[in-house]
Amino acid sequence: MPQTSCDVAIVGGSIAGLRAAQTVARHAPDLTIAMISDETYPPYERPPLSKVGLTKPLLLDALIYPAVNDLKSHGVNFMLGTRAEELDVEGRTIRHSSGALQYRSLVVATGCEAVMPPALSGLPDVFSLRRYEDAISFRRALADPLKSVAIVGAGFIGGELASMVANEGRQVALVDLARKPLGRFGDAVFRSYEALHRGAGIELHFGEQVTDVVQQGNGSRVLKLSDGTKVPADVIVVGVGVRPSTEWLKRSGLRLENGIVCDGTLRAADHVFAAGDAVRWPNRRWGAEMRVEHWTNAAEQGRVAGVNAANDILGSPLEVCANIPYFWSDQHGVRIQFSGHRAGDEEIAESRNSGGSLFLYRKGEIVTGVLAFERRADFVKIRTMLKSELSWQAASSLISREDL
Ligand SMILES: Cc1cc2nc3c(=O)[nH]c(=O)nc-3n(C[C@H](O)[C@H](O)[C@H](O)COP(=O)(O)OP(=O)(O)OC[C@H]3O[C@@H](n4cnc5c(N)ncnc54)[C@H](O)[C@@H]3O)c2cc1C
């Protein structure tokens, strides 16, 4: 088995891995970098996979991050189509599908993979959406406008897909086991979310379980739900969640508990740092341990893990990762955004006007987060202020009194 070596190894070729590579290249340009990714494409943007309209082309070249070219010129070794299979922390070696890679410091950025319920796994025209090829297969299956579409899972990806399909004037059903999808952000947020989809003509089946998938005599297919309803489902897209891609680390000795457990500097073990969707770490900004499955966090952690992987070699102090989780989602022409941290026991103050809705999460006199349907300017102001401790008085003064 061929063995190669580098200063900084990065496993995972998406946004966290890319940002780590960019940061090392900038921060310590003399260090050699290798990136192992089991995808055959260089790092590309995932968010457009559930947002680009079905009738528009989804071109890989337009999705690949422009920074990839700079990194190639810098000499980064992109080991694409290569699967990391085992990590030897003591020996600082990654065993992978075509050999082994030795490193001085490592960034693990293997992210997450989509969960597929066993009852739906292996059936024709059933898709999850995580990678470019998933999106291409799903779009191909939808090319026949007569095919019915059911989406199982009404989280952000399910909601975006429902919006994408409905936007083409097609009938789509959205099914979720939870009675109140997005209810973790509060009942009022759930109601806004429900109204958004209902208003766009989506058939909603919340609080129902899929009990069977039935192929009918006429060639069409339906999902049978726990209340007995039959939902047309020639094409099924599943968005019921993801799990950290950490199987390959099972024997590494790293602590794996619904993610790679790291300290505040994203350090998982000697000379090993981690970044992105797969990471569980204590976020000092909130005094809470968390794992975040959103793009901005993965980018920010990629930067910190990159600095720290380089500093580990240079003998410089490590940086702490204390950030403000943020996500956005685009559904039916409405941008939904959240910033902050919701533990679950905060009071929620609601502000609605013709520009949209704003929800402020409040613990005593402190604002811990903000969620908005549109209201982009208000949202940006509060998101910016959340960079430091934000008092209720300061946040509420930004919104006109009659809105609250
Ligand atoms: C369709 C879609 C839409 C999204 N939209 C939004 C949005 O609107 N807003 C938002 O905030 N977030 C969004 N997200 C989430 C966001 O894309 C993720 O948070 C982000 O991609 C996480 O980046 P990551 O680098 O941690 O991991 P990932 O993107 O999961 O990438 C991990 C990489 O590691 C590779 N890998 C895994 N295991 C191995 C191994 N053993 N060996 C080699 N390589 C391996 C994978 O193939 C992959 O390339 C969306 C995600 C999807 C799928």
UniProtKB/TrEMBL annotation:
Keywords: FAD, Flavoprotein, Oxidoreductase. Its cofactor is FAD. Pfam families: Pyr_redox_2, Reductase_C. Gene3D superfamilies: 3.30.390.30, FAD/NAD(P)-binding domain (3.50.50.60). Residues 326-395 form the Reductase C-terminal domain. GO terms for molecular function: oxidoreductase activity, acting on NAD(P)H. Residues 7-302 form the FAD/NAD(P)-binding domain. The keyword Oxidoreductase applies. One of its GO terms (cellular component) is cytoplasm. InterPro entries: FAD-oxidoreductase/Apoptosis, FAD/NAD-bd_sf, FAD/NAD-binding_dom, FAD/NAD-linked_Rdtase_dimer_sf, Reductase_C. The keyword Flavoprotein applies. PANTHER family: APOPTOSIS-INDUCING FACTOR 1 (PTHR43557), RIESKE DOMAIN-CONTAINING PROTEIN-RELATED (PTHR43557:SF2). This is FAD-dependent oxidoreductase. It comes from Bradyrhizobium centrolobii.
